[in-house]
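Below is how a single chain appears once it has passed through the pipeline. First comes the sequence as given, then the structure the pipeline wrote out for it. We keep one example in the README because the format questions we get most often are answered faster by looking than by reading.
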Amino acid sequence: MKKMKNKIIFISVMSIFISCKEADKKDSNKTEVLEIKEENLNPQEILKNKSQDTLIYQDDKLISKSEFTMYGDGVVNLNINNEVIIYNQDESVFGKIFFSEESESFVIDMPKEIKARYFVPILEQFSFDAIRPKENDSYLNIFINSEIKKIKKEKINFNFFEWDNYLKESFINIRRVNNKDQVDNNTYKVLNIEKDSILIKSISKTECDLIEESKNISKKVKWKEDNLLLISFFECN
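Resulting structure:
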């Protein structure tokens, strides 16, 4: 993944925001997202609370959110150098992404609100849940806004990670729904995966200088419930 060093301030702010899972927040449009205590919810409301979206990035042209619902077989990271056309299942055009030399930034010709695994154009981050690509497939099948979209494989460079591999390559935080007794503000790396459970160890500031605190903790937690993530991914670089 390519990184933009001059955006470190943005990353820091975003990281602090993500680490405060399900806490009270207000966006620039004064929209409130209130923390909901599970003991006061019925089973349907608990499921909704666990699968709510998280705001990743917002400006006047884009609202980027990450879903806690998992789709497909893993996550694909796109390396965009040329114009990328994203198609709907019926072959109609859903949107386009291209780099403008004039503005020295990516132009996003898509709906203003995008839900993906991690979509932040100013950091050159384009990560989507995806169906495992086959060698003879003409298209790469990705998920945007909870729906399957298609990109011609010949037009894009990409790296695909099975869910287990993506988990091992990532830093994670524990979501409130997975740790009801207390707030866990530590950031972890994954040591081992056993089906729906993972063995994790807290990371130090030498591994990521953006973390808020660094306690030496190792423990086993549940990382998913069916197709719902009980952890969140933490971008450090």
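The radius of gyration is 18 Å.

See the next section for the split statistics.
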